[in-house]
Amino acid sequence: MEREREVVIGVKSQSTLEGLFEKIYRVKAIFKNKEVLRHSHTPANLPHRDDQINQLATILVSALRKETPSNIIMYGKTGTGKTAVVKYVGKELEKISTKYDANINFIYMNCEVVDTQYRVLANLCNNFCSERVPLTGWPTDQLYSLFIEELDKDTKVVVIVLDEIDKLVKKSGDDVLYNLTRINNDLENVKVSIMGISNDLKFTEYLDPRVISSLGEEEIIFPPYDAIQLEDILKQRVVLAFKEGVLEETVVPLCAAYAAREHGDARRALDLLRVSGEIAERKGERMVTEEYVRMAKDKIEQDRIIEVVKTLPKQSKLILYSILHLKNEDDGPIMTGEVFEVYRELCKRTSLDVLTHRRVSDLISELDMLGIITAKVVSKGRYGRTKEIYSTIPFYRVKTLLKEEIL
DNA sequence: AATCCACAGGAAGCCCGGGAAC
DNA sequence: GTTCCCGGGCTTCCTGTGGATT
Q1: Element (H, E) at A20
Q2: Are A272 and A298 in contact (CB under 8 A)?
Q3: In this predicted structure, what is the pLDDT of residue A59?
Q4: CB-based contacts of A262: which residues, under 8 Å, 6+ apart?
Q5: For chain A, which terminal residue's Cβ has fewer other Cβ atoms within 10 angstroms, N or C?
Q6: Å between CA of A363 and C1' of C14
Q7: Which of A103, A110, A102, A192 is closest to A147 using CA atoms?
């Protein structure tokens, strides 16, 4: 953001007003089509995922024969192509279903948003029912009956995809899945198959054995991409995204290498590439060099943190500020008790309600999960057990941001 | 070996706002 | 309006614990 403004002002001061856009326009000699580097873009083919696509297709083909496909769980870390594969196969399946005169519905849901039993059902209802179901308010079993009733009206096969299913289970338990996997018992005309996508390889530990056995009829694993595979993915997009010859030779391998180090995340690799290009573009350069990739890496990380911090609830901001305040005072690890003391003082000064120790402890854990601090539980023997808190975030930027917002 | 610190973190339940139905 | 539901933030009460100290 800031950098953008600088460039614009810089150009303006050097040129007449007529030349303004012309000059900026001329500088944009790097991208051909930036959209293909975004996450929302589903490419026409998915390199190094043939096995998974075939497995999935083999399982889902029974839908064309109007049989119930097995339930599936798919495992793999972020950016390993799970969602892309599912969407791709789903699209193909729906496309071909008309040819075989099969009525197939493919429903995709992201459980990061749809994260309770109620919301899952409401979402499903809104897919099939004519009447709108409110986001909250109804008894859950009423929703379930409505869903069954509406769903069963005509003959079809329904594939329900629950993306980030581990989030759903961690938050609301496995009741939803238990009910969904047994839904076929309540249906006469419709065959339902559940497809779960999980980022967490061990998420079945949270499940009832009965749910595991019915949900995990088939399993598909998405291993992380290695650097070479990432390079292939990037190369495929580079052709579409960038103008010819604007990338230094080492740029793509470097992006791939950075992303491979972070558990082979293709999304991260694409981000790196896009942001490097953007930085070069803003600087008015004609070439994207290694240097810009490094800058992009820092920028992505910093922007992420700033964005997270900005959207934090007020109490969490106060706690984070307390942590940064303590970090300023001495370099050693910070403990929960100290944070609580500083936090209480700050509350008094800003006339905010003081939360309990218990709650503050939870909020600290939340900050840890968001990745803006690191909190490790350690035992100090006679002197108790506590969390040792470290922060690795850009100190001054965040602290001034918080200071503005709190005080 | 027993003690004991300074918390962690689970369980239950309260309160509130949003929303629907009556 | 009242009366249900749901979900989220929060409190209260509680049990658990690793290892320095006694």
Answers
A1: helix A19-27
A2: no
A3: 93
A4: A268
A5: N
A6: 20
A7: A192
Query: What is the reported pLDDT for A5?
Result: 38
Nucleotides of chain B within 7 Å of a protein C-beta? 3-11, 17-21
Tokens 């699209």 correspond to A91
Residue A182 per-residue DSSP state: T
The encoded tokens of residue A266 equal: 């293709």
Between CA A95 and CA A101, with CA A100 as vertex, the angle to 5 degrees is 95
Q: At what angle do helices A336-350 and A314-329 cross, to 10 degrees?
A: 120
pLDDT of residue A28: 58
Strand C contact at CB of residue A134, distance < 7 A: no
Query: A173: Cβ–Cβ under 8 A, 6 or more apart, which residues?
Result: A206
Distance of CA A117 to the CA centre of its chain: 21
Identify which of A269, A226, A264, A224 has the alpha carbon closest to the alpha carbon of residue A251. A269
Spell out, as residue ranges, where chain A has pLDDT lower than 50. Answer: 1-15
Nucleotide nearest to A138 (CA to C1'): C5
Beta bridge partners of A374: A390
Distance A136 CA to C12 C1' (A): 28
Residue listed under structure tokens 């496909």: A69
Task: Give this prediction's pTM.
Answer: 0.73
Specify the DSSP element, H or E, that contains A172: helix A165-172
Footprint of strand B on the protein (CB under 7 A): A 134-138, 335-338, 357-358, 361, 364-365, 377, 380-387
The 3-state DSSP class for residue A161 equals strand
**Token code pair at residue A223:** 């291993």
pLDDT for A8: 40
Q: A200-257: per-residue pLDDT in tens?
A: 777 776 677 788 888 888 899 999 999 999 999 999 999 998 888 888 889 999 999 9
Closest CA to A111 of A52, A172, A56, A53: A172
